[in-house]
Amino acid sequence: MAEENLHDSPSPTALDLHACTHGDLLALMAELGQPAFRAKQIEDWVWNKGVSSPDEMTNLPKPLREALAARVAPLGASELARQVSEDGSRKYLLGFGDGASVECVGMPSPGKLAVCVSTQAGCAMGCAFCATGRYGLTRSLTAGEIYEQVMHVRNDFNARVTSVVFMGQGEPFANYDETLKALRKLNDPDALGIGARHLTVSTCGLIPQILKFANEPEQFTLAVSLHSTVQKTRNALMPGVKRYSLVHLYAALGEYVDKTGRRPSYEFALIGGVNDTEEEIDSLCDFCRGTLCHVNIIQLNEVSGSPFKPSTPEKAQQFIDRLSRVGVEATIRNSRGADIDAACGQLRQRMR
Ligand code: SAH
Ligand code: SF4
Question: DSSP label at 267?
Fold first, then answer.
């Protein structure tokens, strides 16, 4: 270790402790002349205690802390801004070393803390009703950066995180490998240990990845953003998934259910005059009838400058009633944090 490096900021090729396996850390300890048990101690700081730099790893000898500080990239994301909703939800804008920033949200309820994380800075899918989609993709996040959002919320609320939804910015399945790594780490009993069923990934419907997800051994939960089962409407609302037709999506979801035995949920945000018509209700009933699924009817959250408006509560109830008549469970989901633009589809990269 060069002496002059000790207090410099780590180089761009700095080691990402989040990306290190146990084996990598053992090799690093050997290289630094440290006993093997230090690897476990470091992992505990990274995955459980959520420190932002090796300086805070107080059970490590000072020379090791200094050696690590010179080598590793900063761990925590920095909080650039925050907003607190009337309902207790907190939205954070977190920044990473290269200037990319994302939002995440903590949603407390008695005895519970749900966290909504982003998987990409921005999103390339361009859904017409979504604030994130409007600005395109900046970059995908690493598993560590996804995990850090959960740690940030946990530390801020000083409470155990009971569930995580991958419903912030970005399309998780367009960043499949890092999303899976983050899910596994969140599930790991040596890390946050959140039950797989309480970890939900929402996709706009990337079929190859839905099929891949069906073959993962863990019981993670899948949510699919439908928003219309009329091909023409869906193409207009969700141009990024035009090439994955509803016929194929239907078949893929059937395969998912057959393989996993688990029930996917479908997100359907009602947009006045666009996807709340009789034709849309009929079509959605046909799509869901006789299949294992749960439909979440959401009122569209208005995005400034967008021509789309939410539908009415009567229409939402009509969807629920009609679906229930064909034996499909459906609920109206109320968005949290709407007053701070933290609700679905309102997350952007900058707070204004
Ligand atoms: N990219 C993934 C996950 C992030 S979006 C996906 O699309 O599923 C999370 C959820 O918010 C999705 O169901 C998305 O369709 C929904 N959403 C986006 N914009 C919205 C808006 N303006 N109002 C309500 N829901 C919206
Ligand atoms: Fe991307 Fe999801 Fe927004 Fe569509 S709804 S643009 S997939 S974040």
Answer: E
The pTM assigned to this predicted structure is 0.92
Q: What are phi and psi of 254, to 5 degrees?
A: -60, -45
* Domains of the chain, earliest start first: 3-71 (1.10.150.530), 78-340 (3.20.20.70)
Task: Verify whether ligand 2 is closer than 6 Å to residue 116 (CB atom).
Answer: no
Q: Express each pLDDT in 175-195 by its tens digit.
A: 999 999 999 999 999 999 999
Pick the residue whose CA is nearest to atom 18 on ligand 1: 345
DSSP character for 118?
Answer: -
Q: Which ligand is nearest to the CA of 227?
A: 1
Q: Which of 125-129, 154-158, 209-213, 335-339 has the lowest mean pLDDT?
A: 335-339
- Among the options 103, 148, 171, 178, which is catalytic? 103
Cα–Cα distance between 56 and 59 in angstroms, integer?
Answer: 9
Which residues approach ligand 1 with their CB closer than 6 A?
129-130, 167, 171, 202-204, 225, 267, 269, 298, 300-301, 303, 344-345
pLDDT digits (tens, 9 = 90+) for 131-160: 998 889 999 999 999 999 999 999 999 999
Distance CA 347, CA 313 (A): 24
> Ligand 1: which residue has its CA nearest to atom 11?
344
